[in-house]
Specification:
This is ComG operon protein 7. The chain is built from 1 helix and 4 strands, in the order H-E-E-E-E. The chain is of the alpha+beta class. The protein has one domain: Pantoate--beta-alanine Ligase, Chain: A,domain 2 (2-Layer Sandwich), CATH 3.30.1300.
Length: about 100
């Protein structure tokens, strides 16, 4: 009986830790998606021909680093890199954007 209670207790604790970890990942992905949409619009509708920048921001408990690098191999193509981190966890998203 004691073994069954111990196994159930460990299972509930593991599930709780996984849920909290998963919620943090979802929040970080949501922040990254918002930043990607903002930066994509900035690149698409900018009058500047050569856009390259690096930004670091703090949003609450999250640190956001965004980079835009012009891809020289393709016409008006830019690599967009967003990294959202919280202490020792992080999510990094890379995408490419073309100007219109």
């Amino acid at each position: 009986m004691m073994l069954a209670v111990c196994i159930i207790s460990i299972t509930i604790q593991s599930s709780s830790n996984f849920t909290i970890s998963n919620q943090t990942n979802i929040e970080m992905l949501s922040i990254a998606e918002t930043y990607i949409n903002d930066k994509r619009d900035l690149i698409k509708y900018s009058d500047t021909e050569n856009i390259n920048f690096y930004e670091e921001e703090q949003l609450g408990k999250y640190k956001i680093v965004s980079r835009v690098i012009k891809n020289e191999e393709y016409y008006q193509c830019y690599k967009l890199n967003i990294r959202v981190s919280l202490q020792n966890k992080g999510v990094e998203v890379n995408t490419y954007v073309t100007k219109q």
